[in-house]
Amino acid sequence: MAESSKKTKGKQKIEIKRIEDDNDRLVTFSKRRSGIFKKASEIVTLTGAEICVIVFSPRGKPYSFGHPSIEAISNRFLRVNPEPNNNANPFYEVRRQARINKLNELHKNLLGQLDNLKKHGKMFKEMTKEENIQDWWEAPIDEMNLKEALEMGAKFEALSMFLLNKLNEKSFGGLGASSSSFHPTN
Predict the structure, then answer these.
(1) What digits encode the pLDDT tens for the residues 8-43?
(2) Are 172 and 160 within 8 A, CB to CB?
(3) d(Cα 43, Cα 95) in Å, to the nearest integer?
């Protein structure tokens, strides 16, 4: 792929200095803020740490992220209430943890399904390569997804048309015969 065909610059290192254009600075702030909050959330999920992030925009608007809450972390930091894990609402924490567990399980299941689909797609591609053209019709249908099954159906239809044309050529001695060719991998 030639350098000139690239549409974007991709991920590049930038010089760390103040962005002079107000709009560019606000856009960068918004993107970086969401990235920081995402990383903070990942730290909480992976380690169970208590974390608090407070950021003020260039226009002075406050944004915050805290686990278990901003108040609990700030109280602990200021030693107002030094007891660890002082949750203002234990019911909320139980529900939040249950939701996190449910989302983690769903994520795990989706990753498993994705892996299975990748394996099936790879197997299907290998079975339909040019060198395996003689046995593409033996692909296990019960292991195919909808797209693969439709592709196989289209190949069968193309084969059927090809065979009908060849039979017509033989029956009519080549009169009015079509000069189609069959390519099952197309």
Answers:
(1) 777 788 888 998 998 889 899 999 999 999 999 999
(2) no
(3) 20
